[in-house]
TrEMBL record:
It is found in: Cell membrane; Endoplasmic reticulum membrane; Lysosome membrane. It holds the Pfam family LRR_8. SMART domains: LRR_TYP. Keywords: Cell membrane, Disulfide bond, Endoplasmic reticulum, Glycoprotein, Ion channel, Ion transport, Leucine-rich repeat, Lysosome, Membrane, Repeat, Transmembrane, Transmembrane helix, Transport. GO terms for cellular component: endoplasmic reticulum membrane; lysosomal membrane; monoatomic ion channel complex; plasma membrane. This is Volume-regulated anion channel subunit LRRC8E. SUPFAM superfamilies: L domain-like (SSF52058). The gene is Lrrc8e. GO terms for biological process: aspartate transmembrane transport; cell volume homeostasis; cellular response to osmotic stress; cyclic-GMP-AMP transmembrane import across plasma membrane.
Length: 795
């Protein structure tokens, strides 16, 4: 016998694949099993029992009729066949070998091929049906996608996050009406005043069920490991969706195998109906075997004809039912748009309105899933929702960034505020808003920040920095920050990405913006209106503006510090600066300036001016600074200035002058007439000598001469007895004058990188100088007398 288990490999599939089998595929599978049983049963009978039994005919050859087998029928059968005569008692004189020979020969020549091979045909056709049904589960181009989809689907279905997301949505859908009813009930109870106790109990009964609904269920608890697993699932679903939506190979393969089954069904049905009558009980056999057996005509009995005819009709019935399922499958395939799948019902039921519709093979598989159980697609849709993903990210963030961990990151910033800095996180943890002591919040490279209502818990918050971190601020939070926030720093690739709510913070005192204007807007340099910023005192703009933004004049009445960093782009129109009447500090850094703008000389309240990193070659206009009577700090560093004009002496109120990183070779003697100068920085130039008049600067406390070509110092320089810092490093000095002893307050002296052979022992008379403040080669320091070194090393 042939065990049915041998055919199991043709239909064996992973149990999980059953979710992709609609009811018609399941029915067809059972039908193929039934047809296979028919075929196997017929084959078993064919192999184990005699196929045909033949007896010779005793009629003379010339008297043989067309139906010689009728003479051998028993009486009952003869009467049924037309009353033929009875023949009995005849001996054939044939041995067993001759009968076997005749049986085999007549089976091969006289029996119709359909009667001979019927069970084998049933088995072959059934196996073809089985292959057609399961081919797309085996074909490499489709099986990999199916296995991947089933794997992801099972994980999504069993994920605790799916249950949490759906329960949260369910809670939100009921929370609003429930809360409303609770309030009405409470008001009714309050209005009743001293009502009856029975009424009070009744009200209590009405309220308590609402409380049960609004309480968070236990299933919403999600540990860190489960959150990470759900996060990985979101990534898998995204990649799988992109991969599967590119083509429709699954859809095409399913259609092809269904069409093939329909064609096979019609072919089987037609030829079975035509040939089923060829299965007969009696078969006449005429073979030329008279020389071997003595007979040429035989009457044969097909022993399994009666059973095969019944099996054939049964098989045809199963094939008809199978064909009807295939035809219905074709109708389903072509009647519905299976390459598109809409989650509209899921969106309406769950409230996740951002669940996208899908197409191609992804849509087709979801349609098949719906035929099995629509709950699968509903739970799977949770992992297609960006809102759901953001909630999960938020939950994982809260698990990772606990309040204790965030407190460890608190530190004082440059403004002295207690700052929390977060960088490159997938979102903003809700636990941040539990740190009520935070005064400054710095967020860098954090995508899609949405400040929750919990922002109002940061009662001490005064400063926010948003560096490449787009943020949305709800209206309630805007009201909270409007008068509290004092400083905000915003940095983006382009200035149009700056959130508009920034310009509505009327309590803001400092606004720092960094980003580029689009090329078509750079010349106009249009910036949002600053009229609402009534308290703004500091405005910093780093961009590529072609002129000073016109909106700067909106705050002209109270702006005290303006910083424009143009990253090398030339700043042309500066006339609007004249309107900044109360401006105290002005920075025009990397603005491509070749001369000092005349608009600056109109700023009567100006105290500090920084023109760093421009293209200044001449500063003849420096004479006009005498109109800026309050100017105390002038920074002209990192330019191409070749000389300082003589009328620098007019700046008698100047206290700090920065001329480093220029091309100066000499300094004018008139510089010594700036008697109020406390700091002079001329480092990184080409100075070869210093004018003795520098000794007149009796207020000088800081002198930087490093990285020049000085070979000697005038003795008059040491008349500056208030000098505390003297930087002489990396020059060509060969000796240091003993007059250095006159600098009693000197606390920092740099001598590295010179050609000194020894240090004067008079350094010991500089009472404020210690070893930590003396920057010199170790060999030179060791050359000092021991008592001098001991004195410098004293605490």
């Amino acid at each position: 016998m042939i065990p049915v288990a041998e055919f199991k490999q043709f239909t064996e599939q992973q149990p999980a694949f059953k979710v992709l089998k609609p009811w018609w595929d399941v029915l067809a599978e059972y039908l193929t099993v039934a047809m296979l049983m028919i075929g196997v049963f017929g084959c078993t009978l064919q192999v184990t029992q005699d196929k045909i039994i033949c007896l010779p005919s005793h009629e003379p050859r010339e008297n043989l009729s067309e139906a010689p087998c009728q003479q051998l029928l028993p009486q009952g059968v003869s009467e049924q066949m037309g009353g033929l005569r009875e023949l009995s008692g005849l001996k054939n004189n044939l041995d067993l070998q001759q009968y076997s020979f005749i049986n085999q020969l007549c089976y091969e020549t006289a029996l119709h091929w359909y009667a001979k091979y019927f069970p084998y045909l049933v088995v072959i056709h059934t196996l073809i049906f089985m292959v057609c049904t399961s081919f797309w589960f085996k074909f490499p181009g489709t099986s990999s996608k199916i296995e991947h989809f089933i794997s992801i689907l099972g994980k999504c279905f069993d994920s605790p996050w799916t249950t949490r997301a759906l329960s949260e949505v369910s809670g939100e859908n009921h929370k609003g009406p429930a809360a409303g009813r609770a309030v009405v009930t409470t008001v009714s109870a309050t209005g009743a005043g001293s009502g009856k106790a029975g009424e009070g109990e009744k009200e209590k009964v009405l309220v308590e069920p609402e409380k049960v609904v609004t309480e968070p269920p236990v299933v919403t608890l999600l540990d860190k490991k489960e959150g990470e697993q759900a996060k990985a699932l979101f990534e898998k679903v995204k990649k799988f969706r992109v991969h599967v939506e590119e083509g429709d190979i699954l859809y095409s393969m399913y259609i092809r195998q269904t069409v093939l089954k329909v064609c096979k069904f019609f072919a089987i049905l037609v030829y079975n109906l035509v040939y089923v009558e060829k299965i007969s009980f009696l078969v006449a056999c005429r073979v030329e075997t008279s020389e071997v057996t003595g007979y040429a005509s035989f009457c044969c009995n097909h022993t399994k004809a009666h059973l095969f005819s019944k099996l054939a009709f049964c098989y045809i019935s199963f094939v008809c039912v199978y064909g009807i399922t295939c035809l219905y499958t074709l109708y389903w395939l072509f009647h519905r748009p299976l390459k598109e799948y809409s989650f509209r019902s899921v969106r309406e039921e769950t409230g996740m309105n951002d669940i996208p519709d899908v197409k191609n093979d992804f849509a087709f598989m979801l349609h098949l899933i719906d035929q099995y159980d629509s709950l699968y697609s509903k739970r799977f849709a949770v992992f297609l929702s960006e809102v759901s993903e953001s909630r999960l990210k938020q939950l994982n963030l809260n698990h990772e960034w606990t309040p204790e961990k965030l407190r460890q990151k608190l530190q004082r910033n440059a403004r002295g505020r207690l700052e929390l800095a977060l960088c490159m996180l997938p979102g903003l943890p809700d636990t941040v808003f539990e740190l009520s002591e935070v005064e400054a919040l710095r967020l860098e490279a954090i995508c899609d920040i949405s400040f929750p209502p919990g922002l109002s818990q940061l009662v001490n918050l005064q400063e926010i920095s948003l560096l490449h971190s787009p943020a949305r601020l709800p209206f309630s939070s805007q009201i909270f920050l409007r008068d509290r926030l004092k400083v905000i720093c915003v940095k983006f690739e382009e200035l149009r990405e700056v959130p508009l709510w920034v310009f509505g913070l009327r309590g803001l005192e400092e606004l720092h913006l960094e980003g580029l204007f689009p090329p078509e807007m750079a010349r106009a340099a249009t910036l949002e209106s600053l009229r609402e910023l009534k308290q703004l005192k500091v405005l910093s703009l780093r961009s590529n503006a072609g002129k000073v933004p016109a909106s700067v004049t909106d705050v002209a009445g109270h702006l005290q510090r303006l910083s424009l960093h143009n990253d090398g782009a030339r700043l042309l129109a500066l006339n609007s600066l004249k309107k900044l009447a109360v401006l105290r500090e002005l920075e025009l850094v990397a603005c491509g300036l070749e001369r000092i703008p005349h608009a600056i000389f109109s700023l009567g309240a100006l105290q500090e001016l920084d023109l760093k990193d421009n293209h200044l070659r001449s500063i003849e206009e420096i004479l006009s600074f005498q109109h800026c009577r309050k100017l105390v700090t002038l920074r002209l560093w990192h330019n191409q200035i070749a000389y300082v004009p003589e009328h620098v002496r007019k700046l008698r109120g100047l206290e700090q002058l920065y001329l480093s990183h220029n091309k100066l070779e000499t300094l004018p003697p008139q510089l010594g007439q700036c008697f109020g100068l406390r700091l002079l920085d001329v480092s990184h130039n080409g100075l070869r000598s210093l004018p003795p008049e520098l000794g007149l600067l009796q207020s000088l406390q800081h002198l930087a001469l490093s990285y020049n070509a000085l070979e000697s110092l005038p003795d008059e320089l040491f008349f500056c007895q208030k000098l505390r810092t003297l930087l002489l490093g990396y020059n060509h000095l060969t000796q240091l004058s003993p007059h250095v002893a006159a600098l009693r307050t000197l606390s920092r002296l740099e001598l590295k990188g010179n050609r000194l052979e020894a240090l004067p022992e008079e350094l010991g008379d500089c009472k404020g100088l210690r070893k930590s403040g003396l920057l010199v080669e170790d060999t030179l320091y060791e050359g000092l007398p021991a008592e001098v070194r001991e004195k410098m090393e004293e605490e």
